[in-house]
Amino acid sequence: MPELSSLKIAHQTGSYEIRVGQDLLDSVAELLTNIGAAGPVGIISNATVNDIYGGKLREGLNGAGFVTRTILIPEGEEYKTLASAEQVMSALIAQGMERSGTIITLGGGVVTDLGGFVASILYRGVKLVHVPTTLLSMVDAAVGGKTGVNHSSGKNLIGSFYQPDLVIMDVKTLETLQIRDRVSGYAEMFKMGVIRDTNYLNFLVDNMDELLQGTSLELLVKAISRSCALKAQVVESDEKEADLRRILNFGHTLGHAIESTLGYGKMRHGEAVILGMYGAGWLSNQIGDLAQEDWEKLSAMLRKIPMEISLESLNPEAIEEATRLDKKVANSQLNFVLLHGLGDAYMQTGIPTLMIKLAIDAIRTAWEGRE
Ligand code: NAD
Ligand code: GLY
After folding, report:
1. Residue ranges making up the domain that contains 10
2. In total, how many domains does the chain have?
3. Using CA atoms, how far apart are residues 116 and 291, in angstroms rounded to an integer?
């Protein structure tokens, strides 16, 4: 029998279910009916994902009597913008989307972030169902209610907290994913292990090859479900990121700065987060209290994750400058998620910006010395 897991996430005004399993694309119409979704269904996707999975999704929905409209956004992080969101809304309005309708996002984190944002503001909010199709969007972007678009000054600077009504994760869709996108999603699961659960971290490290190759769907269901459950614990206790939720940004202060200085599209989000986790671990060891033994373990695990990237164009000065624009800067002080130990993360304020440059040097040295 195919592995299936179901998880309920509570939030300030209700709760929603996350379904993880195989062949769930066939059940979307039934699951929509179960949550009382009606009206026109606006499917937001991109051409790559729509070509592979859009037909199957529409077939089930139309067969069950749902009227569907499909709006495609161009491929790539550089199109996760306010301008794209406006174009999507114009198309939805022109095609008869109603206040009582439902938006389904079908795609990776770019689609779930932008589609979720559209759902949160169109007609002041419509029903939202995420159908994430990348590993990263399953374990992170589609869970927890953060939606948004990028601004020329930085990533995700415009957005909203808007909880979905349902999240459907069909692990079979991961079969068509490129290896770099598998690595990218693995990075976010790895992050959950580092900040919350060392047993899970060891499980991920022990099964890294199989998870990256996607040879066992059962293993993927297990890994994804645990990562979502760990994220849910954090988000349920701090939905709007006033306190604990900030630890989910482990590796992201440097990661976002690396992504934005290199130019969107040069590096996958999770690849940048792997480098950012290395930098944050290094800082934790240098100025925090991460023991040498834990740091050596973490740095070895991170450097073993397969990544074919060149760090030649990383510019420490530009990255330092970019960290100042990060949402985690408060009162001109750089806030950074550091580690007391593996499985134990905390937010440290007042990190001197000089340390950012040194952390980037440490990352470059470590990656140049990889076997
Ligand atoms: P992505 O959405 O760009 O998808 C990566 C690539 O995979 C794209 O080319 C896409 O077309 C393709 N693709 C998607 N599904 C596929 C499939 N099943 N088979 C083949 N190809 C497929 O990237 P991503 O890594 O999924 O998401 C990154 C985005 O997520 C970033 O914008 C990041 O900021 C955001 N994010 C948001 C949150 C949040 O909490 N909201 C958390 C983490 C990341
Ligand atoms: N991806 C970080 C968060 O959801 O808070």
Report:
1. 5-177
2. 2
3. 40
